[in-house]
Specification:
This protein is mainly beta. Helix content is about 5%, strand content about 45%. It has a five-stranded antiparallel beta sheet with strand order 1-5-4-3-2, with no helix packed on it. The chain has a four-stranded antiparallel beta sheet with strand order 6-7-8-9, with no helix packed on it.
Length: about 325
């Protein structure tokens, strides 16, 4: 049995962010949040989920470190969820399986094959929600886990591409943290839009600003049948979304400027945009490339950067 240990990580100040004293996040495997408590899945050698780091985004001067028991086979990790039931869920095996760990001991409780392959996992209160891998348009996009399997979650349907591979690429879907009983989500590519899901599973879709040149938002279709060529032509405007009270939100950009996302040296995730009541209110430049938003308010954000460091960004 792997024991869960408590460790203190002192954060050093600095305008460009803070660094965990035990070292940066080695290999990011996913994030989850319950209230103000953030969970980061830190992967060890070979991409194996080795520990979960937990801390309050408001007071990140100390963290709880949960060492996870090694799974029975190598895992290819796609995300993390923390439902309110004392467990840690890790989407693994290229989205075909889920590993569940005890949050107190880190012991592996179950390793189950999913009813359908998935490409994302999030907690929504006590529920665990999956983004399904869909190869056809018009199919359920999300599912909630239940004892007997998956249940279709919300009315969202998969989008259609000109080929199976393009349909797969156009349905890459991601979500942020629940705030005010709503889950903010977005399609990874295409025109920038936010999808807000409430506790009644109702969906509201809103257009968002981006830093991508408008000419890239309507790309010409590449006739090549490869997935790489399909995804190269698609714009990827959003990296993360943090929902704030009163319909305000922060957007962490992904692709920026007028260059396709796969070009060498392309600028990515160097700005956050605050949107108030559907309008762009402020754009703030990051000191280095961001990875995900861990928490924040209108005055600032706690960010995990691509180099593994964690820091507060003042946005006043």
């Amino acid at each position: 049995m792997v024991l869960a240990s408590l460790a203190l990580f002192l954060l050093t100040g600095g305008s460009d962010g803070a660094q965990l004293s035990a070292g940066p996040v080695r290999l990011f495997g996913g994030k989850a949040r319950q209230g103000e408590i953030v969970s980061l899945l830190d992967l060890g050698e070979g991409g194996v989920p080795s520990r979960v780091i937990e801390f309050s985004w408001r007071q990140p001067s100390a963290a709880k470190l949960i060492e996870l028991q090694r799974a029975p086979k190598p895992l290819e990790i796609l995300g993390l969820a923390r439902p309110n039931d004392g467990t840690i869920w890790v989407l693994a095996d290229k989205g075909r399986s889920v590993a569940r760990f005890d949050e107190n001991t880190g012991r592996l409780l179950h390793f189950d094959v999913l009813p359908q392959p998935s490409e994302g996992i999030w907690n929504f209160g006590s529920r665990v929600v999956f983004a399904l891998v869909q190869l056809r348009g018009g199919e359920p996009l999300l599912a909630a886990a239940e004892r007997e399997g998956f249940r279709s979650f919300t009315s969202l349907k998969s989008r259609t591409g000109s080929t199976t591979l393009e349909t797969l690429a156009r349905n890459l879907f991601d979500c942020g943290f629940v705030e005010s009983s709503r889950l903010p989500c977005w399609w990874a590519n295409g025109p920038p839009e936010a999808v807000f899901i409430d506790q009644n599973d109702e969906v509201k879709i809103s257009s968002l600003p981006s830093l991508i040149d408008n000419r890239l938002l309507t790309p010409t279709r590449n006739p090549s049948p490869s997935l790489e060529s399909m995804t190269t032509d698609l714009p990827y405007p959003i990296r993360d979304v943090l929902l704030l009270p009163r319909d305000s939100l922060w957007i962490l950009t992904n692709q920026e400027g007028s260059r396709p996302v796969t070009e060498p040296g392309v600028v990515r995730s160097r700005h956050v945009i605050r949107v108030d009541a559907g309008r762009k209110a402020k754009t703030v430049e990051l000191p280095k490339a961001g990875l995900v938003i861990l928490g924040g308010d209108k005055e600032g954000l706690l960010l995990l950067y691509r180099d593994g460091s964690i820091g507060w960004l003042s946005c006043q």
